[in-house]
Amino acid sequence: MSYEVRPLTGVMGAEIVGVDLATLDDDSLSDVRRLMCEHEVVVFRDQSLTPRSQSEFSDRLGPSGEVPFVGTMSGFPNVIRVVKEADEGAAFNFGGAWHSDFSFQVEPPSFTVLAAVDLPPWGGDTVFASMTAAWAALGPQMRERLSALDAVHTARDAYSRRMQPLHSGMRGMSIVCDDSANDERVHPLVVVHPETGKEVLFYNRAYVRDIVGMDSEEAAELLDFLHAHTTDVRFQYRHRWRNGDVVVWDNRSTQHFAINDYAGFRRELHRTTVKGGVPSR
Question: Against a cut of 0.90, is the pTM above it?
Fold first, then answer.
């Protein structure tokens, strides 16, 4: 298959032109996977994926990731309908905080596949940040400090029972919070990407809530620094959605944020995740 790769920024993101995700042969899929890891976010325009064909494409990247808390589509247990209805106004939108998908899991997702279904005339962009570029921009002393640390990941500030009213405001999605969100998972703060061999900051604001062995004041100060640093505009790509778009990103080396600026309009996308491995140094 012949296709063209068009970089989207100087640090991350690429549009791959001339690919039909529903008909990729194995050799082309292997090459596309390499580009996903290299560019961290890849965009495929003018696709026509159904829930079934999206599931099939996602499954070719690897086994489906576990989907806690969020209801999936009938008949497609790995597909989430990411929906905000036009009359839900300024209600919270799914993904509306900087995060890496389900990083609180033992084996967080490797890739996420998100397909546009119904878009507002404007707004609803998704912003991505490269944790590879953020790591590379740090000085040697800070790198040495961070490399020795482990971070505590938990879903308590996203899916614990006290968060249920926030999610219940989105009637187009079924999100059920429970006590398992209070579980904690420890991952290294700096990990080696298993496919590129590059070091990356495995950090995101939503799920990293503490640093192992650090007092609360020092940890809060470091986490504030990491959030400000990793979401700096220097490390970002902002995707403006078009009908037919499919965007695939590498959760092992990025975090992202869905902008909630389309009150009065409907937005629906379909999401699948691919199981990853245990993050390691």
Answer: yes
